[in-house]
Specification:
Elements lengths: L3 E6 L8 H9 L8 E5 L2 H9 L4 E5 L1
Amino acid sequence: MADKIKITQIRSTIGRPAKHGRIIRSLGIKRMHHTVEHDNTPVIMGQVEKVSHLVKVEEV
C-alpha cells in the first residue's frame, strides 16, 4: 500500500448532494481537474469512497 495518494476531481459537484461538495472541499480540491496529494489514511480513504464517482485516485 502506498504512503501517499493523488486525488483529482474529474466530475462536477453541480446537481449532487451538498454533502458531496463539502467532502470535495475538505479534501482541498478547489476546481475541476485540480489534483491534491494526501497521506493514505483511513479518514482520507473514507472521504474518497463517498465521492468516488467524482474523483480519480492514484497511488504515488
